[in-house]
Amino acid sequence: MIDVTIIGASGYTGGELIRLLEKHEKVRITGVSSRKYDGEAVYKVHQNLRGSDLVFKNLKPEDIDADLVFTATPHGYSMKIVPELVESGIKVIDLSGDYRFRDFSVYEKYYGLKHTNPLDAVYGLPEIYRSDIKKATLVANPGCFPTGAILSSFVLSKMGIVDRLVFDSKTGVSGGGISPNEAFHFPNVYDNVNPYNIVGHRHGPEIQEELKEFSNVLVSFTPHLVPVIRGILTTCHGFSNNINKSNDVTDFNVEDIHEEYKKQFKDEIFVKVLDIGEIPKLSSVRGSNFAHIGGFEVDETGRLVIISAIDNLVKGASGQAIHNMNIMFGFKEDESISHYGLAP
Amino acid sequence: MIDVTIIGASGYTGGELIRLLEKHEKVRITGVSSRKYDGEAVYKVHQNLRGSDLVFKNLKPEDIDADLVFTATPHGYSMKIVPELVESGIKVIDLSGDYRFRDFSVYEKYYGLKHTNPLDAVYGLPEIYRSDIKKATLVANPGCFPTGAILSSFVLSKMGIVDRLVFDSKTGVSGGGISPNEAFHFPNVYDNVNPYNIVGHRHGPEIQEELKEFSNVLVSFTPHLVPVIRGILTTCHGFSNNINKSNDVTDFNVEDIHEEYKKQFKDEIFVKVLDIGEIPKLSSVRGSNFAHIGGFEVDETGRLVIISAIDNLVKGASGQAIHNMNIMFGFKEDESISHYGLAP
Amino acid sequence: MIDVTIIGASGYTGGELIRLLEKHEKVRITGVSSRKYDGEAVYKVHQNLRGSDLVFKNLKPEDIDADLVFTATPHGYSMKIVPELVESGIKVIDLSGDYRFRDFSVYEKYYGLKHTNPLDAVYGLPEIYRSDIKKATLVANPGCFPTGAILSSFVLSKMGIVDRLVFDSKTGVSGGGISPNEAFHFPNVYDNVNPYNIVGHRHGPEIQEELKEFSNVLVSFTPHLVPVIRGILTTCHGFSNNINKSNDVTDFNVEDIHEEYKKQFKDEIFVKVLDIGEIPKLSSVRGSNFAHIGGFEVDETGRLVIISAIDNLVKGASGQAIHNMNIMFGFKEDESISHYGLAP
Amino acid sequence: MIDVTIIGASGYTGGELIRLLEKHEKVRITGVSSRKYDGEAVYKVHQNLRGSDLVFKNLKPEDIDADLVFTATPHGYSMKIVPELVESGIKVIDLSGDYRFRDFSVYEKYYGLKHTNPLDAVYGLPEIYRSDIKKATLVANPGCFPTGAILSSFVLSKMGIVDRLVFDSKTGVSGGGISPNEAFHFPNVYDNVNPYNIVGHRHGPEIQEELKEFSNVLVSFTPHLVPVIRGILTTCHGFSNNINKSNDVTDFNVEDIHEEYKKQFKDEIFVKVLDIGEIPKLSSVRGSNFAHIGGFEVDETGRLVIISAIDNLVKGASGQAIHNMNIMFGFKEDESISHYGLAP
């Protein structure tokens, strides 16, 4: 049994952490911090959590006595509190972007912020970095888009068979957070599709940095807001320079590729590789920590198409954070996150 | 540990039973029956259940060896198989309408079917009939609309203070089942509201029969299809004849009424009575077995308004069925159905 | 040809006025006023109006030279500018609530505002007040909920056969305006139903005031926000005291009632009375100035159900305002608002 | 004034033709044909058209006396009736895929049908083929996806600056037609994203055939079903081989490209070229015949992104068909299709 505190508990990812951790057999939630809702019952803000006894407190880092802290705090704020927590011997899983980059200059460029407290962190994608996570003190939980994009394609990069990947992602609105704004005003989203940051979105370089660990591949990324609450569906279009030069020859062998994906994920609880031609959809993973990967088809121009589906708040955020916690503390990997997706 | 079989497992309520029962510590699913999908892996139909090893079989009643059978079968079909199961000593929870009425002539009138196999059954609303359910051999799981409507109002009927109740219900589309038809064609439902069976819906007399167990009250019911997948929100408008006669005097005392609701449900895990003026919403109970009841306001004309929200597939069907099972077999009442709603 | 100015042109009703008036053969839009967007092209705010040359200006009442002004301004603001406009000889159609009530004390109670500039106005529901509108200087355009509710029921009040009416309304989100807030944050509305102001909504007394012009009837009103952009579907539950006293006898004669509705609206372009048992739906009137009225059924308890569907921004606001203008200036009544609803 | 008949009038594109043509000042609708609804009032099927006097008839080609026939009939059926109509001197605009391909063997491959009646037809995209359309006897109205894709990119192909284009399209459900099926069952679409035919969709070769008229470019296409009724948003990802070879140099000059688009469409009523960085969205064109084209950004890998938005039933089908008719008969090009999009 460990003591866990959540900072930034009034947002969507904070709410998800509480929803899942309250049912975790090895976890006691000892603090849920919110500046805005200090003293308020958690269920007044997260009304789905009616039944919980938790109450928000405005906790300072120095007040916290826990084995693990989740910082579900905004970019730029995490860096202010994480170092103090780490120094005091508390393990930290940070859900912000502050510690996701190896190269902090990339962070500073894409987040438009000076990084005042760089620290070594493990990138918390268990399917790649499990052994590092086990020993980590600070885990940088991946971004939601990068989770779906990297899972759909790092095997390709490992195989060294792609030169260019275009990730065309469709995301639910919960990725934008709990605060209302014009972009998420119901009449602006419903019955609509809104591309945004069509070039230069900050999750592009995060994907790029991870994929180039395996081989040299050019990464492009464009997100679209669709009228969905949860979920990111990523369409990964893959190209090889060999193919680009010749109209007629396709040298992607989908059977080999598919075989390699099956091998890579065969012991993974949360990644399901579908059959060739089977297509993932958001409803299959809604509310769950599963990632579904499918497609595996090549068209006449030599373009390879792979599709991944995740729940942005679970596998793309809080569920993956709990998965990381389970690994760090030697718990059963799927403890409290084993449930199936909610469909229909 | 008990052995459980689900008949009609390829529909939505069947899928929900599997989703929840696979995580139940005291249950082994020994059969999932479907005529249409005989031999098919369950996850090919219920794609959210990828990871399950279950395979549909076309099971005949005589093939079934189980402690409990859930019949998630269509109205009119349950009556053909339930008696044989019951006779062979298997407990049955029937999710169809076939055994919900005390008065089978009401069933025959509203379902337009001759009832060929009447049997005594317990109406499976645990908050009213827990002690009968404990001893039951056959439980008739309540309809989705009646669950929300009765929970919102049976206390009023017990108190004997209402003469007329109008239930104006808004339901998600999953209540209509997994088979496509014109009424559930996406462009007909999205961005739309469709009232249907505005008088004479078969769930009206089911509500009426239950409420009149407590006192004499006239029940009216009108359902509306809204662009939502799961959930029933019921607006219960209550009237007293005393009030109708006089414009100025309101004799509903909301504090007393609210107090009575709090008392009635104080030991119930799944029913949450909100404060006076707090309003339930579907998102708070989505995917969960909770029922939220709120509102408790009276307008200047003496109309009392109470609102209830449930997930039609969980509290309104499969979750409640599992709750009944837990009671029948002495398990923890919320085993496998204790999780919170999925919000946002 | 008349000169028309719109004050408050950057909101939804302002945008609708422009959308429709730009195609009006007898209207020249001489001003579109917005404080916030002074100097901005209209199509930058209302992106569907790309192609329009109009530019927002911050117009003061004294700057306006027009035959008619639409004030699509917030409650409380209209009363500050309408009197000056009227005095200067300009006709005004006010889309706010400021001039809708005969009894200004009701306004002050329900809007929580002191009314500083009471004026006589004609209630702009053409189907009732056409002859007054023809001669009006100031028209108070009805509220969106009252438009649907009154059209569904004033015939009943005229017939003198109902003692109580309960309007249970389901509205799209555009009724809440163009400004984002928590209630209209996409994840709070989508896949959800939100009742609000379940008693005491300010549109209740507006309905009450109009219906009691015909006979004494008690009016109750409860609105619900549904995941829809446009449209109000109103379920009108009607009761007679005679019926309340006796369980068995229904004295509503739906054929007579239906006949009376047909008669009342036979020359109305915009009100369509459906056959008995036919049910209106929002998609049939989407984007149009039509009101569909249907249902006309009585249940076993003697409750009468009538359903109306309108587009809240057109028949419930800007389209009806243009209808009023057409009447005031002797134009063809359906000029620029004759198009059908957009379905699917 | 011309006489027009619509065959296949009970589907979505048929309904749209009626909705728009009934307000056309130069058109008399002399026949609306439907086998299924012979004798039924049009407004019983298309309930938004309540007010129309039209009645479906089951018309044979030989019964038709008209200046123009729209065949809104299924693929494979048009080819059976179009030749007879054309021979009898009637002009035809065919909304099916039967006459869209220059190379009928491509049609046969992708539609899986033997083409029994090949005829010369003009591809009805007015922005490219206006002068041919003016003189045409048979116009093949473009597919919905090709309309959005070609408009977003034919200028690039004309400029000869792209080697590869990937069209990642997001479509509303109305593109799938009025008949319910599993793919369009509400719970399968809502809150979900469904990619389909991720390679090999029949609209890919249609786009390819048109774009290669200008220069040699490889076309890839993947459609996704999103929870939207109307609209196709196409994300066009463009690549040049020059760029692929070098990570650092971008030789797309977006200012030049944007200038070329502005020039190309400067006299087009229905195509709006947005500023560089402005992003089209479906809500801006909903229900209208407009196409919005925007984006025009290049990322660090040299990928060019252009976005187009259309209403699939209007610019992608019936509106464009009427545009073609207006050109063929010398009417004002925007007669009956000049209205703005419906937003919010």
Automatic annotation (TrEMBL), chains A, B, C, D:
Gene Ontology CC terms: cytoplasm
Annotated family: Belongs to the NAGSA dehydrogenase family. Type 1 subfamily.
The protein, known as: N-acetyl-gamma-glutamyl-phosphate reductase
Any one biological process term the GO annotation gives: L-arginine biosynthetic process
Transmembrane segments: none
Coiled-coil stretches: none
GN (gene name): argC
Catalytic activities: N-acetyl-L-glutamate 5-semialdehyde + phosphate + NADP(+) = N-acetyl-L-glutamyl 5-phosphate + NADPH + H(+)
Recorded superkingdom: Archaea
EC number, UniProt record: 1.2.1.38
HAMAP family attached to this UniProt entry: ArgC_type1
Alphabetical keyword list: Amino-acid biosynthesis, Arginine biosynthesis, Cytoplasm, NADP, Oxidoreductase
Entry keyword annotation includes Amino-acid biosynthesis: yes
Biological pathway: Amino-acid biosynthesis; L-arginine biosynthesis; N(2)-acetyl-L-ornithine from L-glutamate: step 3/4
Organism encoding this protein: Methanobrevibacter curvatus
Semialdehyde dehydrogenase NAD-binding domain mapped to chain residues: 3-136
Function: Catalyzes the NADPH-dependent reduction of N-acetyl-5-glutamyl phosphate to yield N-acetyl-L-glutamate 5-semialdehyde.
Gene Ontology molecular function, alphabetical: N-acetyl-gamma-glutamyl-phosphate reductase activity; NAD binding; NADP+ binding
InterPro entries in the cross-refs: AGPR, AGPR_dimerisation_dom, AGPR_type-1, NAD(P)-bd_dom_sf, Semialdehyde_DH_NAD-bd
Catalytic residues as annotated in Swiss-Prot or TrEMBL: 144
Protein localization: Cytoplasm
